[in-house]
Every structure is written in C-alpha cells, then in structure tokens.
Amino acid sequence: MTETTTSAPRRGVPLWAQVVIWVFLVGLLAIVALGLRRAQQGTVQPGQKLNNFTLPLYSGYQVDGKSQISLEDLRGKVVVVNFWASWCKPCEQEAADMQQAWKDYEPTGKVVFLGADYVDTEPEARVYLKKFGITYANGPDLATRVSQYFRIKGVPETYFIDQNGVLKYVQIGPFTSPDEIHAQIDPLLNDQ
Amino acid sequence: MRSRITSYVLLFTVILTGLWVLPVSAQAPTPSDDDVNRIARQLYCPVCENTPLDVCPTEACRQWRELIRTMLSQGKSEAEIKQYFVDHYGARVLDEPPNRLVSYLVPAVIILLGVLLLVRGFQMWMKPSKAEANPAAKEPEQSSDPYIAKLEEELKKQK
C-alpha cells in the first residue's frame, strides 16, 4: 500500500491587504476607545488651568456693554460659571440663591457670575431670568461649545474659577442656599 | 339730500370695514402642527438620546417646537430654521450630516475599500497557485538519491 500525500493549495490574503485590514481595525478600536475614555472622563477637574472660552451674552445681561465675554477678560477675578436651562426644574431650585449670592458679591467687583444657558430658546430663557430676577451676565451656550469644553453631564452645574483661571470647585446639581455658594467663593477671595 | 346722507353712511361703513379688515389681512396665518412637525421630524432633541423633535415629549422639545412655529410665522424658511438650530445647538440636532461631501464620501470610500479588500482576499483564497492548477506542468523534483535520479532519467527516455 502506497501512501499518497497531497499538499493543500496555497491560500491567503496578500500581505499588503492584511496590513491595511489590521490598520483599519486598530484605527476603529482607537476611535471607540477614545470615545469611551471621553465618556468616562467626567467634567473638567479642579486644579486644571482652563483654556480661554467665549460666551455670547443676551442683551440686557451684558458685562460693561460687551456682547460677549471671554475668560481671559476676567483674569484677576473669581469667575462662577453656572450652566442652566429654562426647561430644567432643578435649576429653579438654585436660581434665587445664585442671584442672592451675586448681589452679595457684586459691590466688591472681585467676583463675576456667568450664566451659560444650555440648549434653550431665548424667549423661554428670558421668561426664566425675569421670573427669578436674575441680573448677572447671561448668554446662550451656542452650539454647546462651552458646555462641551467643560464636559458637563447635565444642568445645573456650577464651576468656580480662581483669579488665575484655575478651576477650583465643581458643583454638580443645585445649590440649596446662598451660604453654600459663599463657602466656595470666600476662600478664593481670601487666598489673594 | 337723502341720497347724500346715504352716500356718507356708505362711505363711513366702507372706511370702518377697511379699518377692521386691514390688521387682520396683515397677519400671517398661524402655522399648523403639521407645518411644525414637518421640520421638527428632521431635527433631533439636543438633550435626549436619539429622539426626533416631533415625537419628543419633554418640556425642552415642546419649547423648540414652539420656536419652530414662531419662526415659521415670522416667514423663516425651512433651511433658515434648520440653520438656526445648528448655530444654537450644534450639528448633532440634524437627522442628516450637514457637510454632505465629507460626510458621505469618506464612509463610501472606506466601504468601497473594504469590499475591494474582501473580494481580492476571497479570490486569492479560492484560486490555487499555477502549479497546483496544472500538475502536468509541474517540474519534477530533482532527487538527491543517484539511483532514483538515474531511474527517472531512464523513464524520461522511454517516453
């Protein structure tokens, strides 16, 4: 009995195609990983020096007659950025407290409050501002550029930035009293 | 005299009617829900996940639908309204990507490239090599054994 051996036909994807496929797959995985990392990253963290951002302002809620304001314009002052929306019920809980805190610090000239109106309509936003008697600077977060920079997870969220543009504290959810707001601002003023 | 009074009354009536009608004729009709939803279904809620604006039940969506109605009543076109939403809430509110050339060309090229690679790979996988396809054309291997080599040489001569 003779044993016959037949070699299997040579099959395979050419090397260049394999390289392209692997590069494509690795690229796809990298994009997915970056997306997941960003999703798990949370908001910008305290201690981080913030890049400049610009917020357009509603007429009647401008600072020194400027129709928009940049973080760089506010160097040397404590900046409180509050993200809110007229459709946001928890925002209503803190609206009066935010205004009260603003009235407390306004005469010092050392603190600036900025309301960033998140995906809202201007007519409804104005009704909200009027309803709660808000007088500090407010404007729409156009195309969600500012909220994307802060990587907010919802509204309300409030960010406390010191005189050097360093983020010091992040409040997720509403404040329940003006004292809670004072507790974040006073140490920043005393540090100077 | 009587006809003159009648004329004055008629004139007065016409003026009054004109005053009453003018403001009404200047006012545009209120856009219907269908008009609003025609645009709303092309937009997505910026705060909810994957919910078209026309069926989104949240308060925010109700406000945006009202905004569409207001803009329609102001005579804004569909394109102008969509652009307003993109400017204010970002391109993610659109049901279709805004830049058609880049948004459609890049995926199309990638898909085409993938299909070509698959087809090419499949062809290479299925097609045996030339030698395997035509065993007769295969060159006989030179044996290292001198006896076998001699035997093969003799066999060749007999052919």
Number of strands of chain B: 0
Largest sheet of chain A: 5 strands, mixed
- Over the alpha carbons, how many angstroms does the gyration radius of chain A reach? 26 Å
Mean pLDDT of chain B: 80
Largest sheet of chain B: none
What is the helix content of chain B?
55-70%
Which H/E pattern describes the elements of chain B? HHHHHHH
Structural classification of chain A: alpha/beta
Q: How would you classify the quaternary structure?
A: heterodimer
Question: What structural class is derived from the secondary structure elements of chain B?
Answer: mainly alpha
Q: Into which percent range does the helicity of residues of chain A fall?
A: 25-40%
Strand order of the largest sheet of chain A: 5-4-3-6-7
- Per the principal axes of the C-alpha atoms, what is the gross shape of chain B? rod-shaped
**Secondary structure tally, helices of chain B:** 7
Which percent band covers the strand fraction of chain A?
15-25%
Topology:
The complex is a heterodimer of chains A (about 190) and B (about 160).
Chain A: H1 15-41, E1 54-56, E2 68-70, E3 78-84, H2 89-105, E4 111-117, H3 122-131, E5 137-140, H4 145-150, E6 157-161, E7 167-172, H5 178-191
Parallel strand pairs in A: 3-4, 4-5
Antiparallel strand pairs in A: 1-2, 3-6, 6-7
Chain B: H1 2-26, H2 33-40, H3 59-73, H4 78-89, H5 100-126, H6 130-133, H7 146-158
Helix pairs in contact in B: 2-3
Could you please describe the fold and organization of this structure?
The complex is a heterodimer of chains A (192) and B (159). Chain A is α/β, with parallel strands linked by helices and 192 residues long. Chain A has 5 helices and 7 strands. In chain A, strand 6 and strand 7 form a beta hairpin. Chain A is elongated. Chain A starts with 14 loop residues before the first helix and ends with a helix. Chain B is mostly helical and 159 residues long. Chain B is built from 7 helices and no strands. In chain B, helix 2 packs across helix 3. The N and C termini of chain B lie far apart (141 Å). The mean pLDDT of chain B is 80. At the A-B interface, helix 1 of A face helix 3, helix 4 and helix 5 of B.
